[in-house]
Design brief:
Number of domains: 1
Number of strands: 4
Strand order of the largest sheet: 2-3-1-4
CATH topology: Alpha-Beta Plaits
CATH architecture: 2-Layer Sandwich
Distance between the termini: 33 Å
Radius of gyration: 17 Å
Structural class: alpha+beta
Number of helices: 4
Helix content: 40-55%
Largest sheet: 4 strands, antiparallel
Shape: globular
């Protein structure tokens, strides 16, 4: 098991790189059900965008639809990227009643979601 010490050292390095008080990017991508109407998708877009004005912990929010010509999107059409001051702010957002109401609105039209949180490095 010579790899175990190497893996442990790598894991410790990765864990120590995370900081409780560093900004966090929260990236979410949606794949909608085929039966989701354009009106339903538009309502979801508007509701997600409106969260920026309802939840003060959202430092920034950007979103868009796929325009890639590479055909590697796996059916995901929408990408949302939000920034939070730290892990505590992200937790407030995730638990916030307005976010929970959005999730309830989203779920009937959602086929799949991809969520990725990270702390930016330079």
């Amino acid at each position: 098991m010579r790899l175990l010490p190497i893996f442990t050292a790598l894991l410790m390095t990765m864990t120590s790189a995370l900081s409780a008080d560093a900004p966090i990017r929260h990236v979410v991508s949606f794949k909608f059900k085929k039966e989701a109407s354009p009106a339903e998708v538009q309502k979801i877009e508007e509701a997600f965008a409106a969260l920026k004005g309802k939840i003060p912990q959202i430092a920034s929010l950007e979103w868009g639809t796929n325009i890639s010509g590479e055909n590697l999107d796996k059916g995901f059409t929408h990408m949302w990227a939000s920034t939070f001051a730290d892990a505590a702010a992200l937790k407030v957002y995730l638990d916030h009643p307005d976010h929970q109401a959005f999730v309830k609105l989203l779920k009937p039209s959602l086929e799949d979601a991809f969520v990725f949180d990270f702390q930016p490095r330079k």
